[in-house]
Amino acid sequence: VNMDKLLYKKIAILENCSDVIYGLARRRMINLIPPTWAELEANFSKTGIQLGGRWKPKNCTSRIHVAIIIPFRDRDSHLRVFLNNMHPFFQKQELDYRIYIVEQKAGTIFNRGLLLNIGFVESAKIDGDAYDCFALHDVDLIAENEWNIYNCSEKVKHMAANISKFKSGLAYEKYSGGVAMFTKWQYTSVNGYPNTYFGWGGEDDDLYERITNNNNAGFSRVPLDIGRYTMIKHERDSGNPVNPGRVRQLQSSYKRRKVDGLSGLNGTYTVLKIDEFLLYTRIYVDVDPIA
Ligand code: BGN
């Protein structure tokens, strides 16, 4: 045995990564052509990625430990574009991260808020306390500016300030959807997303009300030139019709806030399967249609 090597291994504690990262680009090249799964896996196996879509810098200890949580169903080509662009993005920011795809089984109306709550709770069962910061992320949003750092801050941090689909950038003043960063504590203190918005729309506005009516959490948003995202173009998903009850639900949001969220999550879903693929971890769930 080489004693020198052994000894070196034992005492090699990695220092924190530098708080300055060189070479971040303000306009990143985005590739919207979906690679095949084989191409993806071949390209990324060289980057030191670990099973489950985990990665961390090799030579230093990252200052940022973040779980990326993505609600998902039936958007395979978006997922391939997302992974192809965003793995390198996260790695450039020297994050210690893992990508979770929370996939809703066919047969029930899509429920984005519920899936994000499930991802928050179930990823912690898998990782323990490995990640203290959560990026709640849509699969069709690709970040353009590498200065949009995926860390958590004192207040909830809204990242998707400037999405290509919206002419003026910001959808509207109270918009909180797309991509947002929460510490574990921030997300718990607002009781997470509501579980009861089946179909498109309103769940993010409900979350905004929860955040801004809660003295503890607080809401912040990155500047427009930082929070730039390209949205992958798509048609309306068949399993995700506009929720006709969303306006009414939003009006009574303050009454349900305490029970409709993380606190009421038990019994609303079943985890069918957890897969650790090379580029992501899949949490496959069936949800109760009357959650
Ligand atoms: C809003 C939706 C959001 C959606 C944004 C951006 C509603 C509630 C109506 C009272 N809100 O209109 O959920 O993220 O558009 O597309 O539908």
TrEMBL record:
Galactosyltransferase C-terminal domain residues: 157-235
Q: Name one GO cellular component term.
A: Golgi apparatus
Q: What class of enzyme is it?
A: transferase
Q: Name one GO biological process term.
A: carbohydrate metabolic process
- Molecular functions per Gene Ontology: galactosyltransferase activity
Galactosyltransferase N-terminal domain: residues covered: 34-153
First-listed, main subcellular location of the protein, grouped into a coarse class: membrane
EC number in record? 2.4.1.-
Q: Report the pathway entry.
A: Protein modification; protein glycosylation
Q: Which UniProt keywords apply?
A: Glycoprotein, Glycosyltransferase, Membrane, Signal-anchor, Transferase, Transmembrane, Transmembrane helix
Q: How does it sit in the membrane?
A: Single-pass type II membrane protein
Q: Where in the cell is it found?
A: Membrane
Q: Which family does it belong to?
A: Belongs to the glycosyltransferase 7 family.
The function of this protein is: Catalyses the transfer of galactose onto proteins or lipids.
Any idea what this protein is called?
A: Beta-1,4-galactosyltransferase
Which species? Lingula anatina
GN (gene name):
LOC106177178
